[in-house]
Amino acid sequence: MKKLMTVRGFILLTAALFLLAACGPGQTPHASDATEAAPLPQAEATVQTETATVVSRDLLLDPAKTEDPDSLLISRSIYEGLVTLDADGNIQPGIAQSWTVSDDELDYIFEIRPDAFFNDGAPITVDEIENNFNRWFDPQHPLHGDGNYPSWLKLFLAFNGERDADDRSVSQIDGVQKVDINTFLIHLNRPDPQLLTYLADPAFAILKSDSLSNPAYGTRASTIIASGPYAVTSWTEEGLILSPNPQYWNPVDGEEIRFIFK
Q1: How many domains does the chain fold into?
Q2: pLDDT tens per residue across span 218-233
Q3: Using CA atoms, how far apart are residues 14 and 136, in angstroms rounded to an integer?
Q4: Which range marks the domain in which residue 77 is found?
Q5: For residue 239, what is the domain's CATH number?
Q6: Is the torsion defined by CA of 198, 202, 203, 208 positive or negative?
Q7: Residue 225, number of CB atoms within 10 A of its CB
């Protein structure tokens, strides 16, 4: 069973992910490698009480579109990406059960677990994953909307088609592809040894694409469909309650998680 990350640990690790955008290259992590977490800076933690965590009232649980620490904290519990971080900051399988990296370190090939489901019972397919990546990356995709994806721009630098003064692609991402029903590919135009660490950021969790056309997505419980270990079961004027998601591929042993508003 995966160890759950503490509130303070998540906030510190999130800060470290943003700092990694300015780091130099290192060794590319492969499927069998554990990615070491960067030294963690000190950050102001969200207040924890004996029974609940106190968070901002102005939450947006659409993690690709926010940098709010409280929204990202909650999003990490209710959504999951291709890979995730364990309590020690190491890369672990998420929706992808395994991955391989090409010899030139430009192709990352992810095998998607067949037992991954959203909490409404719908399977998390390669098509869903492709829709999410194109939402963030491709201005021509119908879900791209206003292009407000701050974490994408911090870590992946630009959207599809943006070129620099020397006519080189600004983003290290060249494109994504559904290889087959179980396989998803990310192609880079230059190696990026931090790719897996970036993908563990909650901003790149997989959301159910047909729910994202709702402009109120992520602002009330009825709009949210979970892909992670917990689901939002209550959102009131007082706060939120997350309950274990029975559809999650690796069910958690735990009670409800409660958040109260400041």
Answers
A1: 1
A2: 999 999 999 999 999 9
A3: 19
A4: 7-261
A5: 3.40.190.10
A6: positive
A7: 20
Q: Is the pTM of this model over 0.70?
A: yes
* pLDDT, tens digit, 9 for 90 and up, residues 157-198: 999 999 999 999 999 999 999 999 999 999 999 999 999 999
Q: Is residue 209 a part of any domain in this protein?
A: yes
Would you call 29 helix, strand, or coil by DSSP? coil
Strands (E), the chain: 53-55, 83-85, 91-93, 96-101, 107-112, 173-180, 183-188, 230-235, 239-244, 257-261
- Residues 196 and 29: their CA atoms lie apart, in Å, by 7
Neighbours of 36 (CB within 10 A): 14
Pair of tokens at residue 69 = 């620490």
Let me know if residue 1 belongs to a domain.
Answer: no
CB distance 117 to 124 below 8 Å: yes
CA neighbor of 21 nearest in space, from 147, 133, 152 = 152
